[in-house]
Amino acid sequence: MAEPLSIAVEIRRLSLTYGRQGSQVHALSDVDLTIPTGGFVSLIGPSGCGKSTLLRILGDLLDPGAGEVRINGKSPKAERLDRRIGFVFQEAALLDWRTIIENVALPLELHGSPRAKREARAQELLDLVGLKGFERARPRQLSGGMRQRAAIARALSTKPDLLLLDEPFGALDQITRDRLNMELAHIHEVTGVTVVLVTHSIREAVLLSDRIVVMTPRPGRIESIIENDLPRPRSLETRALPLFEDLVRQGNLELEKGYSHV
Fold this sequence. Notes:
This protein has 262 residues and is α/β, with parallel strands linked by helices.
């Protein structure tokens, strides 16, 4: 008998309302979700449904209004302070006065890691994300896709258990996005990190994820969870499989059902 999967993320009856009295926004309502250790979960749904809000709660950038959130049995704050969470935003947010290797090593520098150790870790990650040879470049010298690779490397520098990605490839052209999707899949396979990805693309979610969480328009609730049994490792050719298109159709249907509840 297979051993039960350990749980990396556990969310119970999570709700969040923000704003002042009379102008409140109900962002999330009664969200329940568990994510196994090493899993890859995508959050999809219409703009404003609370996907990024949920991600920020997991990253301890927002306090939950009600309910419980545990990451490896601890609070998001405890995990963040223990450097167990990596976060990649829509913009790379690199420091232009620092080289790429210095940007990647920054979290380790802030936590007092010796220079030789942090640069060795940064070099390892730059090799992993395909930026070998660009260590001494400045962010302005790199393309948007290369800057996002550096941002992912920076997020992985502390060897986090949980990697949170808020539409990191949304502003990129399709060819670059496809390439980075495959690099992200490779990073997940190599590191075993638990990944939560916010995306507007059902096709991206199907290509990358083990589970696809479909959310309703605000207040964000979970409409359904689609289990993705596409074989791994995956490639761009995976999109030619009949099961891939079946899952894309299922995802679109679930999104439409979510709108019907508004």
